[in-house]
């Protein structure tokens, strides 16, 4: 039996849990350093240091020659992450953790449908279907339920 897909799913669920922890952690840091931007900067500095340590332990080196052929958008992942962290640090004190994360997941799913449909940014093309739209609609309904609760 191939366990790789199950391991990947578990890893993503755990990463999602880390996102739920990250939002209030950075919100608290933002209060202390007087800015969600300052909190994001500190958060990314700590994350960069941690990744540097892991890369050193694993003896991984980036193939800088291979990076020459990358499209421009391949360099913006950190920017998207910075926007995510700043938005979460700003929103958690105003909306709460559950509402913030639910809205972020809804936004991720909406854009994911579009990216999949068009095969944008090099992902495999997966057309929008009624079932997929219904799944995203249920998440958006969840946003409304979380808001009312």
What would you say this structure looks like, in words?
The protein has one domain (4-148). The protein has helices at residues 4-33, 36-58, 64-67, 77-95, 97-118, 130-148. Helix 5 packs antiparallel against helix 6. The protein is an all-alpha fold and 149 residues long. The model has no long low-confidence stretch (mean pLDDT 92). It is globular. Helix content is 79%, strand content 0%.
Can you describe this structure in just a few lines?
The chain has 149 residues and is mostly helical. The protein is built from six helices and no strands. Helix 1 crosses helix 5.
State the major sheet.
none
Task: Give me the secondary-structure category.
Answer: mainly alpha
Q: Report Rg.
A: 18 Å
How many separate structural domains? 1
Strand content: under 5%
* Pattern of helices and strands: HHHHHH
Span from first to last CA? 42 Å
Treating each run of at least 4 consecutive H or I residues as one helix, how many helices?
Answer: 6
Number of strands: 0
Mean pLDDT comes to 92
Gross morphology is globular
Unreliable spans are none
Q: Helix coverage percent of residues?
A: over 70%
Keywords, please?
149 residues; 6 helices; YdcZ; mainly alpha; 0% strand; 79% helix; transmembrane
List the helices and strands and how they pair.
Blueprint: H1 4-33, H2 36-58, H3 64-67, H4 77-95, H5 97-118, H6 130-148
Protein name: EamA-like transporter family protein
InterPro entries: YdcZ (IPR006750)
Transmembrane segments: 39-58, 70-91, 97-115, 127-146
